[in-house]
Model the fold of this input.
Amino acid sequence: MEYTVQKLAKLAGISTRTLRYYDEIDLLKPARINSSGYRIYAQEEVDRLQQILFYRELGVELKDIKEILTNPAFDSNKALREHLQELLEKRMQLDVLIANVTKTIASKEGRMTMSNKEKFAGFKKKMIDENEQKYGQEARDKYGEEAVDASNSKLMNMTEEQYKEMTLIGEEINVTLAQAMKTGDPTGELAQKTADLHKKWLMFHWKDYSKKAHAGLAQMYVDDERFTAYYDKIEPGAAQFLRDAIHFYTGVTN
Done:
């Protein structure tokens, strides 16, 4: 079956302008242009559009989607299985949050009591799911399945007080890091205070502390643009400054 721009846009629930833009950037070209000058899309283009919309739903940028789909090694069946896994994880996360909100409403209406642990379970589960989605595979490759599972378990079993303390320490790290950067010295007192706070924050997640692992994580903050972007929001160069401070703190360099 073939589709015009209007028909395909209606089928996919997107605008005709979006389809024309995808054509302009060579992300989704029509199968042909008919004698009247209309774009015509065939089944191959429909399937490709489905892949594009899957990736958009997962927050992947268009330029990255284009690179993925034009890669000769791209496996559409594998991609579909990965999409399914992502969607299942999102559904699980939503189910936990829905249950959490439902219990909270019932608790406020006096129909049931809800422990503090239950109140924060949904938020902690959301944090774990987001971390797994963004960094899970890298963390498992670097630290192993057992270490990552233990970290997730430790987070889920946190008390309300521990969760609040962890959050406050995370905020203090950013404030102290900004102050330390003004000194320009990653070996100075403020920088080393930042590194020590970072260690305390890590221990809410890690079962055991390792100087080598701490230094390795700090290096990843510089090597991985996602971490770099997070810390460099504080001030450009913050990720590298924190890495240098932690390397001095641990006495380990990578």
